[in-house]
Amino acid sequence: MLEISSASNSLYKRLLSLTEAKGLKKEKSFLLSGKNLVQEHLKNPKLSLESEIFTEGMKPSTSVKFQIKMSKALFETLDVLGTHSPLLVLQQPEIPEWDFEKKHQGLQLLLPVGDPANLGAAIRSAEAFGVENVILLKESAHPFLPKAVKASAGSITRVCLFRGPSIQALKDPEILALDLKGTNLSDFHWPENGYLLGGEEGAGLPAGSKFRRLSIPTNQVESLNATVALSIALFHYSQRPKRKKS
Amino acid sequence: MLEISSASNSLYKRLLSLTEAKGLKKEKSFLLSGKNLVQEHLKNPKLSLESEIFTEGMKPSTSVKFQIKMSKALFETLDVLGTHSPLLVLQQPEIPEWDFEKKHQGLQLLLPVGDPANLGAAIRSAEAFGVENVILLKESAHPFLPKAVKASAGSITRVCLFRGPSIQALKDPEILALDLKGTNLSDFHWPENGYLLGGEEGAGLPAGSKFRRLSIPTNQVESLNATVALSIALFHYSQRPKRKKS
Fold first, then answer.
1. What is the pTM of this model?
2. Separation CA B143–CA B136 (nearest Å)
3. Which of A232, A236, A237, A240 to mutate to test binding with chain B, by most B CBs within 10 Å of its CB?
4. A156 interfaces chain B, CB cutoff of 8 Å
5. Which among A164, A234, A162 is positioned nearest to A198, based on CA atoms?
6. What is the ipTM of this complex?
7. Which residues in chain B are closer than 8 Å to A125, comparing Cβ atoms?
8. Tens digit of pLDDT for each residue in B97-140?
């Protein structure tokens, strides 16, 4: 077991950098926090475990080989969500570039979501409703920021993530996009294969974009919360009549 | 126009108290923030306007009679969401006690949501999908906290709000509640009149509760985000076949 109480310790500085996008890009590790998420991951690990971090008064797990005991003050700077519970350091999965030229099966989700909590929530719904792959557009927050991991309730460690271009560079008119006006979702028949573009709270579609617009029928002219709208569309997708496989 | 630059000014102290539940209960006013929400309200006011608060570098609206110019430092303590845009002080609507004995038309929503942002988002979806009334249970956050007002995108100023008991005191087995197990939402026929109980993120239903459980079919055993689950149920409700009025 390693003990760290100095803020100038190089391992501590590396771990602290995982609370921000810059460090996450450089280090290729991330912090998993939250008692339930940590316990779930130890029971059923999906990604390589590097270490566990804890502080006085906490019981670290018996199954993790590399333990780091931090002073209370240092621990609190890593526990940015205030979980007061041990953290895991996990390896980020590779996030390959998405190949738009290839033919893909099922629904692929394109996400330009800059707010980490909204990104995580969108990925949680994507997993729940059977989206095959999640393609993070340039506008997206880093998916392994603590808030994104938490809001995903762990989905982010399980779904297949890819990198895509900027939303501005998406030109395919067959891409489905949620908007205030468009084909009423209730009357919509989902294609067997395709792309759905999620929205960013408060931001509309790029000017002049030629996507196939879908809209969720509501009582008001007002838009829905972007994550809510996406989740409703994905629920509707998951309810589509399944084609029989021949 | 009134100018305030001292933190010991009594009007300032009253306004500052509106950023927390205790002050909101006592004062019966609330702060509306966010450029779009403020403009929308001035165009189409739903609640009585008391004043507008701004600071140097901001252009207050010409239509508000009672203007308060604050020093930058004081203004920032009131602009808790960091909108950098004038704030309105509005009168809270009366929130009467809900009468469970009376017969009510349509779907009524019961909310035990302690997180103000989740509460606001739930109310936004309720308005979008035609819920008649929103009943705030004892567990709910104050609906006029700045985060709740923002997440509601203004819905909170338009829906009919009522007060209800604690979730623990709800005994009617006819109340519909979302849960991991229960009648599959896809096969569910909504009653013409009834109650739907929303959920709190991370919290289950009270032990021993006898509500009629509804569940949203997903790929995983994992639950959905509570606001997402509620919104999907409300979308499904809004899609029910309407009975013909005779």
1. 0.91
2. 8
3. A232
4. no
5. A234
6. 0.90
7. 224-225, 228
8. 999 999 999 999 999 999 999 999 999 999 999 898 999 999 99
